[in-house]
Amino acid sequence: MRFEEAREKVRGFLNAAKKTEVVFTRGTTEAINLVAQSWGRAYLCEGDEVLVTELEHHSNIVPWQMLCQQTGAKLVVVPMTDRGEVLRDAFEEQLTERTRLVAMAHVSNALGTVLPVGELISLAHDRGAVVLLDGAQAVSHADVDVQALDCDFYAFSGHKLYGPSGIGALYGKERLLEGMPPYHGGGDMIRSVTFEETIYNDLPYKFEAGTPNIAGAIGLGAAIDYFTSFDGQAVHAHENAVLRYATDALESVPGVRLIGTAPGKVAALSFLMDVAHPHDIGTIVDSEGVAIRTGHHCAQPVMEHFGIAATARASLGMYNTTDDVDALVGALRKVQELFG
Question: Count of alpha carbons within 13 Å of 214, Cβ hemisphere only?
Answer without folding.
Answer: 5
